[in-house]
Predict the structure.
Amino acid sequence: MTTQFAVRKVSKHFSKDGEDLVALREVDLDVEEGSFVVLLGRSGCGKSTLLNLLAGLTTATSGAITYQGEKITDVRTQVGYLTQQDTLMPWRDVQRNVEMPRELRGERREVRRAAAGQLIERVGLSGFEKSYPRELSGGMRRRASLARMLSGDPETLLLDEPFSALDAQLRTELQAELLRLWAGSGRTVVFVTHDIEEALLLADRVVVLGPLGRIVLDQEIDLPRPRDPDDMRVAPHFVALHRQLSAALKEGAL
Amino acid sequence: MTIESTAGSPVARATPGTAPPTGPLRIRTENTWRQRQGYRTMIWTARALVLVIFLVAWWLLSGPVLDPQFVGSPFGVAERLVEWTGNGVLWSNTWITVQEVVLGFLLGAVAGAVLAYLVAPVRAIWDVISPFVMALYAIPKVALAPLFIVWFGIGIDMKVLLAAVSVFFLVFLNTAVGVQEVDRGLIDAVRLMGASRRDVALKVILPASMTGLLTGLRVGIPYAVIGAVIGELVASNRGLGYLISDSSASFDTNGVFAALVVLSILATILNSLVSLISKRANRWKPLSAEG
Ligand SMILES: Nc1ncnc2c1ncn2[C@@H]1O[C@H](COP(=O)(O)OP(=O)(O)OP(=O)(O)O)[C@@H](O)[C@H]1O
Ligand SMILES: [Mg+2]
């Protein structure tokens, strides 16, 4: 197995008015190809900042990040990134938003339209193809964004709290959908959340981040798949892991 | 009234892999034409009423209270309009002004928009240039009239350019603001999809700044009319501005009002043309905002 992302002693500062705000300090992290890694951490601990760096949207203040051995200098289309805030084009309807990655690639209209239609159905937005983002609920916009990212067919997925705006039922459905997409595909997923249960249901490996992106705990999750949420909640091993992660989060807060 | 649920029966949804189709109910509204048009009819009736009240008041006051020499009268204005229509004065002069306004508007709008798209995306260029633009924008455009006469003579060019100058600044500034306020997140989003600089310009910056551009166009229209008419007032022997100055020189108040009426109608027509365009371009705005 090769390393997809290698993060070495990465720090990120934001300077403002002659003052530096340190968001990440000397973070080390490896993400193996084909793995499903969940980054778990309290609000403000630098999860989104780290994903921005992995996506190549910003550059590190110091340290180095490589993607498949190459230094990251710019964004790359093999990496799909579902950002925390909505970035659907407000002047495009759902259909045309989802088509966009393929449109930029120069794909023919009929081809990309068909592909977009399928993805829209998969995220449960059938019937809303012609709606504009502002006419959708927050969770529906989230699903549209997810469909848009998937339509680019990335080999690596960066997801920043993709399901936090959804109700429990829909979240379970989309988690299953994401796992189906990932399983056996060789795709790598880096998934950010602050929900311990979600982390345990999805991950091969959970990395708990403390303040400044300090790694508090790096835990393999060897629960058997498929993991049914209702069964899991009462499984002793699940409960033990839950307690462990919860303790790590508390420890990280100190 | 027929009710259609987009969700279908909740029990029927068991297909793995498809998220439950949730969403609002869609109710097909079968409002009558009368219901849909009700508000519009009311507004237009009220507008007509305001106009009629104004005209009647004018008509009643002119004579007994106000000196007709100064305020004219509705029938006097109508009479003058009929007379000018008959002898062709109205049409020939209106046509001149229409040409000046439209040409000036187009010239100013195109120049303003193109320049804004060239200058505004590059922060440094904008920072250098903007104080100069602001200084020039503050100049009353009337003050340019004598200068333009020296440069371009007293023909139609001078009026076209006077109209264009005012429109230019309004379109330029509004478009530039639109370009600069493009959400950084949207640009990052298309970069992540592999967009080239050209894609970013055409698929993000251009549509995102459309609102600013359209605002510029809309507020520019009256200024195009003002520019052209000022040009005609200062030096001309044709156009609606000339009709105004000519009528007032011969103490023909009704003539002045008649020309003003035609000018306002002209501005209204241009305005509704631009509103039509912006309605089409702003379809994505939320439903409620359209009214
Ligand atoms: N563009 C920026 N400019 C200045 N400071 C920033 C910027 N982006 C993030 N920060 C700071 O960096 C720190 C980490 O932010 P980040 O968005 O990575 O947190 P997070 O872990 O994603 O939190 P959340 O779970 O709330 O999304 C915060 O203290 C934040 O104030
Ligand atoms: Mg975040």
In short: Residues 2-61 of chain B form one domain.
